[in-house]
Amino acid sequence: MVSVGGDNIMVIQARFYDDIADEMLRGATAVLAAANAKHTVVTVPGCLEIPAALTFVLRGDEMRPGGRPTYDGYVALGCVIRGETDHYEYVAGECMRGLSYAVRHHGIALGNGVLTCNTYEQAWERAQVANGDKGGIAARAALAMMALRRTLTSPQGATPKSATP
């Protein structure tokens, strides 16, 4: 795992499916601890609120004197399960659009651990640390993107190395 001691990461956890959220957080925090990265967990009711929480932090950073971001990277954790109505499409789509916008507009390092599944069983399988460990995968992605940003924005410029930790 690539981490510079002292990395500070915000984990935004949607709590709509508590057991899935807890398992994904368990995987993410294990990866962050192994990388010696500090982290703060912020909870929101559901996936639609993840981009809003991220925006609150990023806007706060813009207003702070000195311009240094509060966090070096972000991990989004949540789960949207398809139901009988179109609600799934709206929640999943708007959550992903909001996260993508934040990445493009603010240049943040983000590990996206928002599951979009057809059934609860699929979601649970992917969330379990012993199986899919999507929370851990999202944390590793955030660390990899933080490392890539450091490489590409360093005074030496880009080098042809992989960003995979």
Feature tags:
165 residues; Rossmann fold; four-stranded parallel β-sheet; 48% helix
What's the short version?
The protein has 165 residues and is of the alpha/beta class. 48% of the residues lie in helices and 19% in strands.
Description:
The protein is an alpha/beta fold and 165 residues long. The chain has a single domain (8-153), classed as Lumazine/riboflavin synthase (Rossmann fold), CATH 3.40.50.960. It is built from five helices and four strands. The chain has helices spanning 18-34, 50-63, 87-106, 120-127, 134-153, and strands spanning 8-14, 38-44, 73-81, 110-117. The chain has a four-stranded parallel β-sheet with strand order 2-1-3-4, sandwiched between helices. Helix 3 (87-106) links the parallel strand 3 (73-81) and strand 4. Helix 1 crosses helix 5 (134-153) and helix 2 runs parallel beside helix 3. The longest helix is centred in the middle third of the chain and has 20 residues, at 87-106. It starts with 7 loop residues before the first strand and ends in a 12-residue tail after the last helix.
Give the overall silhouette.
globular
Q: Give the SSE order as H and E letters.
A: EHEHEHEHH
The tally of domains stands at 1
User: What is the radius of gyration computed over CA atoms, rounded to a whole number of angstroms?
Assistant: 16 Å
Q: For the record, what is the CATH homologous superfamily label?
A: Lumazine/riboflavin synthase
Q: What is the fold-level CATH name, i.e. the topology?
A: Rossmann fold
- Rounded mean pLDDT score: 91
Percent of residues in beta strands: 15-25%
The level of helicity is: 40-55%
The CATH class, by name, is Alpha Beta
